């Protein structure tokens, strides 16, 4: 029976960092080394200011770092020492070439796999942690098999990560399930059991699911596609609510009470963001096209189309409410991260909205409690365009508080559902006092009590709600 004693994780990002930090925390008998090519990222993991914000992450890292948890840029040494290697590198949507804008870019996976093949001096279990198209393990296996010898053997497992940013530590400590896929061969099943033993240090055995490799790879894409589909479904209904006087919160509550549906992921919003949903659905769309299943591809594509529509609809509503022009008007944007409790801005709805406001020549003031100004400038700049950051800086002001952002503003837009923007935490009377009148407020997250803010004097618009609802 294989017993894992030494783990290497390639990729110290949003997934590799928290996942393997929790693993080290729960398995003091296993040495865990997280490696990355980025010196800056590793230096931050070794400092008191970790490179990503996640509630509870600092405690876990500071407890184990230097004991059985290490962060390093020495990728080769960590590979050589390990019995089991998690490949947790980024798999972004391809920007050019075949499948551009849809297929996953597997260059990072391939280069990490090649490195494992080149430098390994003993047998390894190689685990796909990154989200990949179904059958990626086959390509990894071909690379590894070409380099295996009678002394060095490689097994491949798929162990997709289901954590959600913002609740990563909670999700990792108490996962709904852990999924481990393996080739159904003798050595594949032995490797699978070795990883099951690692997880059962803290996860109840019945929550560790074992499947074949391809089911595991596809389940991750399927789970993200279905989660995003629920958001697009409720967002599609939010448009009907606004037009009819139905209230999207009431509809979601009534539907969610059906135990066949469940209440989660039924919150209407300005649209989903994050590095995964869009990328993984497009990945599924591309896979369907490659498999010559155009109707299946169109079905999933619609989830992304609806998400884009929701953002555009929100912007159109803002412009038409502000008397059809926002030129030179000050728009205060509350929140820039793609959701609360994370500093991650990848695919954040805020980026699309603010770019549209800038196109309309509005002045935009942004406040987010966790996102660095440099990140905001980078996200709003167009790649490859000279001096674009300077142009952005002319149109955008980054503020230290919601009050500063709203000062002199014509409209306040809630884009991220940070708790501090709730109406029992932020002094909306103070915000109102500092604004141009009429003072407009657009809630893209169903975060505030519209009635209460209307009493202060705000003109409030909320996604999925019609001001006159229930009165006529
Ligand atoms: P990330 O971009 O934050 O981190 C990836 C890291 O891998 C980077 O720091 C990069 O420098 C490093 N890297 C790339 N190639 C390397 C190589 N050859 N050797 C060493 N380091 C290398 O990405 P993130 O968000 O951690 O995502 C990783 C994977 O996990 C993706 O496939 C993603 O789809 C998946 N995933 C992400 C979730 C999330 O919430 N962010 C949740 C579940 C899965």
Automatic annotation (TrEMBL):
Keyword terms of this UniProt record: NAD, Oxidoreductase
Annotated Gene3D superfamilies: Cytochrome c1, transmembrane anchor, C-terminal, NAD(P)-binding Rossmann-like Domain
GO cellular component: nucleus
Reaction catalysed by this enzyme: UDP-alpha-D-glucose + 2 NAD(+) + H2O = UDP-alpha-D-glucuronate + 2 NADH + 3 H(+)
Alphabetized Pfam families for the sequence: UDPG_MGDP_dh, UDPG_MGDP_dh_C, UDPG_MGDP_dh_N
EC number: 1.1.1.22
Domain UDP-glucose/GDP-mannose dehydrogenase C-terminal: 332-450
List of residues binding NAD(+): 11-16, 36, 41, 89-93, 130-131, 165, 276-279, 346
Active-site feature positions: 276
Gene Ontology MF annotations: NAD binding; UDP-glucose 6-dehydrogenase activity
Pathway: Nucleotide-sugar biosynthesis; UDP-alpha-D-glucuronate biosynthesis; UDP-alpha-D-glucuronate from UDP-alpha-D-glucose: step 1/1
GO biological-process terms attached to the record: glycosaminoglycan biosynthetic process; UDP-glucuronate biosynthetic process
InterPro entries per UniProt: 6-PGluconate_DH-like_C_sf, NAD(P)-bd_dom_sf, UDP-Glc/GDP-Man, UDP-Glc/GDP-Man_DH_C, UDP-Glc/GDP-Man_DH_C_sf, UDP-Glc/GDP-Man_DH_dimer, UDP-Glc/GDP-Man_DH_N, UDPglc_DH_euk
Family: Belongs to the UDP-glucose/GDP-mannose dehydrogenase family.
Protein name: UDP-glucose 6-dehydrogenase
């Amino acid at each position: 029976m294989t017993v894992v004693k030494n783990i290497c994780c390639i990729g110290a990002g949003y997934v590799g960092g928290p996942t393997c930090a929790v693993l080290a925390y729960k398995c003091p008998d296993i040495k865990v080394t997280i490696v990355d090519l980025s010196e800056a990222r590793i230096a931050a993991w070794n400092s008191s200011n970790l490179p990503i914000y996640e509630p509870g992450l600092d405690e876990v890292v500071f407890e184990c770092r230097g004991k059985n948890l290490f962060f390093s840029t020495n990728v080769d040494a960590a590979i050589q020492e390990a019995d089991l290697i998690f490949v947790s590198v980024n798999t972004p949507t391809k920007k050019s070439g075949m499948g551009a804008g849809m297929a996953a870019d597997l260059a990072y996976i391939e280069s990490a796999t090649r490195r494992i093949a080149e430098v390994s001096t003993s047998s390894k279990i190689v685990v796909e942690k990154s989200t990949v198209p179904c059958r990626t393990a086959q390509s990894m296996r071909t690379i590894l098999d070409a380099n295996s010898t009678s002394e060095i053997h490689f097994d491949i497992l798929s162990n997709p990560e289901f954590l959600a940013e913002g609740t990563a530590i909670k999700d990792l400590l108490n996962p709904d399930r852990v999924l481990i896929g393996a080739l159904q061969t003798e050595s594949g099943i032995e490797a699978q059991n070795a990883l099951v033993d690692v997880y059962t240090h803290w996860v109840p055995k019945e929550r560790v699911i074992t499947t074949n490799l391809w089911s595991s790879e596809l389940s991750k894409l399927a789970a993200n596609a279905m989660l995003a589909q629920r958001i697009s479904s409720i967002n599609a209904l939010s448009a009907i609510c606004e037009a009819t006087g139905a209230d999207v919160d009431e509809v979601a509550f009534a539907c969610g009470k059906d135990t066949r549906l469940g209440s989660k992921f039924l919150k209407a919003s300005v649209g989903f963001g994050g590095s995964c949903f869009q990328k993984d659905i497009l990945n599924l769309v591309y896979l369907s096209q490659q498999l010559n299943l155009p109707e299946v591809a169109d079905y999933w594509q619609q989830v992304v189309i609806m998400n884009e529509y929701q953002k555009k609809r929100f912007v159109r509503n803002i412009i038409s409410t502000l008397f059809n022009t926002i030129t030179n008007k000050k728009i205060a944007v509350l929140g820039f991260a793609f959701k609360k409790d994370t500093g991650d801005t990848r695919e954040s709805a805020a980026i699309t909205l603010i770019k549209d406001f800038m196109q309309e020549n509005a002045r935009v003031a942004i406040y987010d409690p966790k996102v660095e100004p440099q990140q905001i400038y980078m996200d709003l700049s167009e790649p490859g365009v000279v001096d674009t950051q300077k142009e952005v800086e002319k149109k955008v002001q980054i503020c230290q508080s919601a009050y500063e952002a709203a000062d002199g503003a014509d409209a306040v837009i809630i884009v991220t559902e940070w708790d501090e923007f709730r109406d029992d935490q932020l002094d909306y009377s103070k915000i109102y006092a500092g604004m141009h009148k009429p003072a407009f407020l657009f809630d893209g997250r169903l975060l505030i009590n519209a009635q209460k803010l209307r009493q202060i004097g705000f003109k409030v618009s909320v996604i999925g709600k019609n001001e006159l609802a229930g009165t006529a």
